[in-house]
Design brief:
By secondary structure, the protein is an alpha/beta fold. Helix content is 52%, strand content 12%. The chain is elongated, with a radius of gyration of 21 Å.
Length: 275
């Protein structure tokens, strides 16, 4: 790989493939070696131009960095495989603290979570602008090397991300409410609605509420399992709020209207702020 600035990409799905496309377009890397347990996914990544050659973890030798873009349950093992071979390793997992706890991470590993997605999955849905103006959270530990952190921060800024740094525990609590719980609700709602035979007349409200229920099952089973405590804590809060709304539906129309109006004000303010 002499003369080339190469990236090892472990996992060639939507997020990993999008990072590879974006990083090459931005000139951060000029060569990407892809690794994936699914040979069809890897072949598609090569065909899409996200990956320049198929390889194995051993191909990390000579690469400038490794991006681990596999489901949460597999991140720690993949980092261990490649960490001794590259100067910088980072991941893109949606849950951070369980990975850190499982890994006892090397100093040059930088935990990351780009908060970006797209309809559909796999590298077929990957695109170079996926991270533009999207928040990318870095959750370094006390042992994380500052130079590695700065390098990875530069990668994400180069592909258009808005980089923030926070503690892993805080990230997981916040994302449990803002991302993980909504997915859990969408999965449950689709299951109940389908069982009730009510999908034939589904319209835009159903479509908007359930869009995220089409997410990758393996990815989201890993996320919800890994962050279960935080998600379940917020689920208890939501169940309490639903109980109060249920009581208002049965007897206090004005209280029900006031709570709906308050939620609507919050939602409109978010829209006005560019959500």
């Amino acid at each position: 790989m002499t003369g080339r600035r190469s990236l090892l990409l472990v996992g060639t799905g939507l997020v990993g493939g999008s990072f590879a496309l974006a990083a090459k377009a931005a000139g951060v890397f000029d060569h990407v070696v892809g690794v994936d347990l699914d040979p069809k996914a890897l072949a598609e990544a090569v065909a899409r131009g996200a990956v320049d050659e198929a390889g194995e973890p051993a191909a990390a030798e000579g690469c400038a960095a490794a991006c681990v873009a596999v489901p949460v349950a597999g991140i720690a093992a993949c980092v261990r495989q490649v960490a001794a071979k590259v100067p910088v390793v980072f991941d893109v997992g949606s849950v951070k603290q369980p990975v850190i706890d499982a890994l006892a991470p090397p100093p040059h590993f930088v935990p990351c979570h780009p908060i970006a997605g797209a309809a559909g999955g796999g590298v077929g849905a990957a695109r170079a602008d996926l991270f533009r103006d999207r928040t990318v959270v870095l959750t370094p530990t006390d042992a994380t090397d500052r130079a590695a952190l700065n390098v990875v921060r530069g990668y994400w800024r180069a592909v258009g991300g808005r980089v923030v740094v926070e503690r892993a525990e805080e990230h997981d609590r916040r994302l449990a409410m803002l991302s993980h719980l909504p997915h859990l609700l969408a999965f449950a709602y689709v299951e109940v609605a389908e069982g009730a035979g009510g999908l034939a007349g589904a319209g835009s409200g159903f479509r908007d509420f359930t869009r995220i229920a089409g997410a990758d099952a393996q990815v989201w089973a890993d996320i919800l399992h890994a962050n279960a405590d935080a998600v379940l804590g917020h689920l208890d809060e939501l169940m309490a709020a639903l109980g109060e709304l249920s009581e208002a539906m049965r007897g206090d129309r004005e209280a029900l209207r006031a709570r709906i109006a308050a939620a609507a004000r919050v939602r409109r303010a978010l829209e006005a702020g560019g959500l």
